[in-house]
Design brief:
Blueprint lengths: L3 H11 L7 H20 L4 H11 L8 E2 L6 E2 L1 H14 L19 H10 L4 H21 L10 H16 L3 H12 L16 H21 L15 H6 L31 H11 L8 E8 L1 H7 L11 H4 L3 H11 L9 H4 L2 H7 L2 E5 L1 H6 L6 E7 L4 E6 L12 H12 L5 H12 L8 H5 L6
Parallel strand pairs: 3-4
Antiparallel strand pairs: 1-2, 3-5, 5-6
Helix pairs in contact: 1-7, 1-8, 2-4, 2-18, 2-19, 3-4, 4-5, 4-9, 5-6, 5-7, 6-7, 7-8, 7-9, 8-9, 11-14, 14-16
């Protein structure tokens, strides 16, 4: 009987570019554009600077990958960590939502890019390995709800990152099994990462999973073996982490790929707040100013409330990481400014007394209405009560960028330009977009990384 690690390896080794439907290929191209834009957007971040310093101290003799933005070479695992930290920092990279909460499947792209560059993989290899990583991540998210057990989404990420890294490195099915065994055993990330006052590690947890996944895949490529059966064993993953589960069939042979259900974010904050921001912006015109507001009630899903309004710190965030995971904060910003942008998490906003007073007027509750719509829609209803007693309410189910309300290619490119225009020249940006939209024609993806070095 095939165990889960073997099932993952069988699927991963058999998935071919030729089996990917055109709409799946197009979707992953758009997600690569979005993800690399987020990485450049996070270049100046504290976690990004720390990760780059560590990565750039290593000068590999042969197998190497590029650090995003700096253009320096390092080992594939440290490139995956540095680039993954920058990609995740703004909380603007893609999202996938399930009953168990979901995560950011684009976290898989940093290790796939790093490993692909190291072996001079072509564009078709990158597309196939990326789809595989997304498929494994999303199918596992469909089955597992790890937060109540104390584990972070990076636990699933280390498995999917291993699948994508193993694929693009050209591992055999037997080596893929061992890579999975080696990745899971030492790398169980804790959910404390996203509770209370949130630290820099929020941007790095998935990146660290990517780093560990690359290391595991490289070990397996050299012949290292790991504990087995890693999922079903007497002290394995099911016993220690997840409980029993069974994976559904993966995409292919007329079965849908879950990458088609991934969303692109419009605002730099947690995915569960995207529709709350839209609702707040739409209601803003109903009142003459924020001084007129007496109270704000937000109805959300129970899960969204738990992760983005479940701690007292979310009403007075002291860090950017806490603020971008706070429904009260981002709704307050939207009502005060008419939008939520990267600059709205600077100290001038975090410590703005007018904004903080407005945030204290906000209450967030899990409601039957939003729970009924979840997870197909991460809906939010925002109600404003004025000092004169008027009430204005709006429900938004699908933000722009949700797979039910997708961005056009032009809108994907606009987001790319907005995030990268201060650091990349117009020539670089146009070259990157041309490469990525025509990725299947690229013989060596290292040519893409060369264009991601920031201007002096």
């Amino acid at each position: 009987m095939t165990n889960i690690a073997e099932y993952l390896a069988d699927y991963g080794s058999s998935l071919a570019y030729e089996s990917l439907p055109p709409q799946v290929v197009h979707k992953v191209k758009g997600l690569l554009i979005d993800t690399l834009a987020c990485g450049i957007g996070g270049y100046a971040s504290g976690p990004g600077e720390i990760a780059r310093r560590l990565a750039e101290r290593i000068s590999p003799r042969d197998m190497h990958a590029t650090v995003l933005g700096s253009g320096r070479k390092t080992s594939p695992d440290l490139a995956a960590f540095a680039n993954g930290s920058m990609i995740r920092y703004l909380d603007l990279n893609d999202g996938f939502i399930t009953l168990g909460g979901g995560g950011h499947p684009s976290d898989n792209l940093a290790p796939v890019l790093a490993c692909g560059e190291a072996v001079h993989a072509g564009g078709k290899d990158l597309l196939t390995a990326s789809v595989l990583a997304y498929e494994v991540f999303c199918r596992l998210q469909d089955q597992l709800d790890l937060a109540p057990r104390g584990f972070d989404q990076a636990v699933i990420g280390v498995i999917s990152c291993t699948a994508g890294s193993s694929k693009i490195l050209g591992l055999s099915p037997e080596q893929m099994v061992q890579a999975t065994n080696l990745a899971i055993t030492p790398n169980m990330s804790l959910y404390q990462t996203r509770i209370g006052e949130i630290s820099m590690w929020k941007a790095c947890a998935a990146a660290n999973a990517a780093r560990n996944a690359v290391f595991a895949a490289l070990l397996a490529k050299e012949g290292m073996t790991g504990p087995s059966p890693i999922f079903e064993g007497r002290a394995g993953f099911m016993k220690a982490v997840s409980g029993p589960f069974q994976l559904e069939e993966f995409g292919g042979e007329k079965r849908p790929f879950r990458i088609m259900d991934v969303t692109i974010k419009r605002y730099p904050c947690g995915k569960h707040a995207q529709t709350a921001i839209d609702a707040a912006i739409n209601l803003r015109a109903k009142v003459s100013g924020i001084d007129e507001i007496d109270a704000i009630n937000i109805g959300s899903s129970t899960y969204a409330k738990a992760i983005m309004a479940g701690d007292a710190e979310k009403w007075r965030p002291m860090t950017r990481e806490t603020a971008d995971h706070s429904i009260p904060y981002v709704v307050g910003v939207a009502l005060m400014t008419g939008g939520v942008e990267v600059g709205h998490f600077a100290d001038e906003y975090l410590y703005n007394p007018v904004l903080l007073d407005l945030v204290q007027k906000i209450k967030v509750e899990g409601t039957e209405e939003c729970n009924r719509l979840y997870p197909d829609a991460s809906a939010n209803r925002v109600e404003i009560i004025t000092k004169s007693g008027e009430r204005f309410s709006e429900l938004v189910q699908y933000h722009r960028g949700h797979f039910q309300n997708p961005l056009t290619d032009e809108e994907v490119e606009l987001k790319f330009h907005l995030l990268t225009r201060e650091l990349l020249s117009l020539e670089q940006r146009q070259g990157l977009l041309s490469f990525l939209w025509n990725l299947e024609q690229i013989n060596d993806i290292g040519n893409i990384m060369k264009l991601l070095t920031i201007m002096n």
